[in-house]
Design a protein that fits this description.
Layout lengths: L3 E3 L12 E4 L15 E6 L6 H11 L6 E6 L6 H7 L3 E3 L6 H9 L20
Parallel strand pairs: 1-5, 2-3, 3-4, 4-5
Amino acid sequence: MDLLLASSELNDAPAESGVLRLTNDVDPATCSLQGVTRIELHFPKFADGRAYSQAVLLRRRHGFQGDIRATGDVLIDQVQQMSRTGFTSAVLRADQSLDKAQAQLKRFADFYQGDAQRPQPRFARG
């Protein structure tokens, strides 16, 4: 599944119905996911990666199948790892280039290790 990218104007939009916004210090196990179609996980700064762990937990332990969106201090350097940990969309920081972020996502066609999107390692996929 490809990571969808958007510019920073979406960061300030009001929450929609079916959207759950979580700060990165919230345990996803404490939240009801009933009726939720998108979960927005916030990166308060580039160096704080707790939202990656939240995304993995939401996909693997809680079976969330909807959109997991990254918001906040999102840089193009992070988009590849976001895709691998279960994010399906990201709102880039205002000074980041959508074109460069798309190029970053295409840099690697496959990975040897499993991840949130494809749990099996490459050798086990046949």
